[in-house]
């Protein structure tokens, strides 16, 4: 190569590199600096900057999230990945047991977490989180599912019962969040099964199926997380089964005329808990992160999460929320003494923790859901 | 052309033949055959175990909802094929016979563009356009009608299929029409054949192969698409491709998804071969 | 012929409508990407570049963009190499089983992506190879090789069949002939194929979604935003991706069209 060309090429390289660096600097410093990557398996939004940003910056880590929808989906994702892929797993409480059984999660040290500060006694010993007095998962947030509706089409009085879904005027405008568990649970509650909603014999299960099928003509669609949002926002759907404030809350904050209530038949609680992935070399960082999410600051981030809000589980978290964002605290009843305080609802027996079916297998439920979706 | 005569094995020829055979054998034929095997496997605790059981086949094929979905998907895809072909034809006709060479080249160029914009983004845009409070309904309410329910209906799904297939259909149809000897069409005119009649009796038979190939591609694309029926049709009811996503993503039922997939491939083969057979059948008669 | 003119205009108008339909969503997403509403409705909100800022300050998007770039360029190279060898084989040789060879080389695009995705996922996870960047490359190469073959075969059919024998007669070996005659002749189509396959790979989401695991590409990120927290970032990312793809396509187009015209004036 002729010598004259050399400096030219070098110049090009030099300026090119300089330009690239200049363009990317703000991102490089965050993304490619000497950071520890944490692989997270979670529901949508948990690994986004509004939740983890502060922690990432303070600890020089970077979360790499993989999102799922529904516990079955989560189990499938873990099962198909090489062992040790995920450092931290956010799971619905009712699936912790299965995670543990399959050996996907590590034991945790109870002393590391603020059990004394929990808002409610049940949360200290949440079903499935302990096995032989050993802790395997730490509850970080929860929420309630009920009747979600557009206030222009369904009145508050109507929404006090799941019957609202069958309202003739909203035929074709009732949506389902596309996961069998919360939907069929609500149908079971509508059947009057109350606290035994997950524990139904053959006859009860048959009746749940019948009730569900009778709703089919009303149904306008089956949606994932994003579709549920869009459906409610675009007025495509006037009521939505299988969800609660975790979706309508986001829209409500945005000013849309939608809300969720716990009807008289009772509501369902979703509970999200963090577990440490089996065999992760980053267990210490993960532990630190879970501690952070349970700290008052972390709890406020969770309560105000952009993707979907969840209630605080610690007293200190609630106190800080009341102080930092009183509007959101009021909206969600997270102020001691409010009538719709989620803890009060639980104490009054109106809330049932979401569980997996007791007498049938998850597969039975899933299969019926498939059939239901395909029915006309 | 002649190949250089050699006595020893022709390494040169083999070297050029092997890459494709090896790669597509390992990563195309292999996976497809494995999928057939997989359909006999069992799933326990979200993990797949090798086995040879017919239970997945039995379970899927004995379900009414599977067959409902099957015929629904078939119907939707056939409908999409018919609609796309009909919608595309006048445009292709224009581009092939009435437009200048330059216009045609530019038109084809523009029709290629959509292939390289994310189909997902386009479908998302249609979601907003078709929604109850979307662009079209806003326009309709301006002139005092509507709103119409378009999203989460079969109409929505069909729009999505059209988004997917139309550009390709127009391109393929235009190519096949442009290859027709226009003198034949003129001759028909001179013999007093009306324009419309000429289209049906001269142009379409001459371009049959290309038209059928375009239709087959429309069928393949819409038969296998899961995005439109999901995001524009509200998966109501789900198509086979949504079923594949559902069964494999939730509950790790890959074997059952494989059953659905194999049924789909068989259907595609039957449709494609019937169509191609039709396309190459001797003209005349 | 007045009648003829009228028909021409009606058809032209109709064709314009078809193009409107095809380009409406592309234009809409461009508009929405500058629109302030999170859930765009009519009337539009105010003008904003927030979604671009948000998308481009999201390290996950950059991560995905980098991965997409790697995947599509590696895919392009492998697929083009395979496509070239297949096209050359088809051009030059006749052998037993050639029909099967051609079927194998052109079949992949006729299998719905979702099925290919499922088969690939099962196959790769048997070797514990799913969820890696290389899994996406492997799958995309399967998908892209036929396109590469088609493009290069088209160019080869324009090559004078006596060109190679002439070189052999002058004493050049087959390999030398390949290097100094065939490759230079097909070079435009090779570059076109590189661009085309890169663009196909850059946009593919179904297979990538199934086999990528934690290693997401840009379209998978788009899909996750759509299934997750619907967010106009999608439009911003989509518009940016569009610009990348279209650049590749234009290069391919210019090379194929520009050169193809010369020998074959129809």
SSE blueprint:
The complex is a heterotrimer of chains A (376), B (285) and C (266).
Chain A (H helix, E strand, L loop, with lengths): L4 H27 L4 E8 L5 H11 L1 E8 L2 H10 L7 E5 H9 L19 H4 L5 E2 L2 E2 L2 E8 L1 E4 L23 E4 L2 H11 L11 H14 L3 E5 L1 H9 L5 E3 L3 H9 L4 E4 L5 E10 L6 H12 L1 H8 L11 H10 L1 H6 L10 H6 L3 E3 L8 H13 L2
Parallel strand pairs in A: 1-2, 1-3, 8-9, 8-10, 12-13
Antiparallel strand pairs in A: 3-12, 4-5, 6-12, 7-10, 7-11
Helix pairs in contact in A: 6-7, 10-11, 11-12
Chain B lengths: L10 H28 L3 E3 L2 E3 L5 H7 L2 H35 L2 H12 L6 H12 L4 H8 L11 H25 L3 H9 L4 H12 L1 H17 L2 H5 L8 H10 L4 H27 L5
Antiparallel strand pairs in B: 1-2
Chain C lengths: L1 H32 L16 H7 L2 H34 L5 H9 L6 H14 L6 H24 L6 H7 L4 H30 L2 H7 L5 H10 L5 H29 L5
Detailed description of the structure:
The complex is a heterotrimer of chains A (376), B (285) and C (266). Chain A is α/β, with parallel strands linked by helices and 376 residues long. Chain A is built from 15 helices and 13 strands. In chain A, the strands form 3 sheets. In chain A, strands 1, 2, 3, 6, 12 and 13 form a 6-stranded mixed β-sheet that branches. In chain A, strands 9-8-10-7-11 form a 5-stranded mixed β-sheet. A two-stranded antiparallel ribbon of chain A has the order 4-5. In chain A, helix 6 crosses helix 7 (202-215) and helix 10 crosses helix 11. Chain B has one domain: MetI-like fold. In chain B, strands 1-2 form a two-stranded antiparallel ribbon. Chain B is globular, with a radius of gyration of 24 Å. Chain C has a single domain, classed as Orthogonal Bundle (MetI-like fold). Chain C contains 11 helices and no strands. Chain C has helices at 2-33, 50-56, 59-92, 98-106, 113-126, 133-156, 163-169, 174-203, 206-212, 218-227, 233-261. Chain C is globular. At the B-C interface, helix 1, helix 3, helix 4, helix 5 and helix 7 of B face helix 1, helix 3, helix 4, helix 5 and helix 6 of C.
